[in-house]
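Worked example

This section walks through a single chain of length 129. The input is the sequence exactly as stored; nothing has been trimmed or padded.
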Amino acid sequence: MNMEQLKEFVALEKRKRDLDSELKAIAARIDDLEQALVPQFLNDGINSLRIDGRQVYLAQEIYAGPLRDRADNTQSLKAFVREVAEEARLRCEQAERLFTEDEVRAALPAPLSGALKISFVHSLRSRKA
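Given that input, the structure is written out below as tokens.
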């Protein structure tokens, strides 16, 4: 038995466990910071900032669902609402207006605008600047 290899294996296993534990703690802290920072980005009307060589930006997911009953074809509905939302976003940018759930709802055809719940879910992401 090669004891040096066995010692290295044990040391690496221990280090891996320590790093996994540290990674879980970092992920939890990132979640806490994101919960604190997203409202600040939204309240200040900021889409992105550069800091320490990274660009931190506000990512937005748009969700649509029926107000009362679940629809069978939610993926198609979601895709349609996202297309309408993109058009509404461009109109808001041109008019220098804040892009909100109400803007999306107003852009939907009449039967859908009163029957759907539109929700924006924001998260922070970063990339190399």
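What to look for: The CA atoms of residues 64 and 72 lie 13 Å apart.
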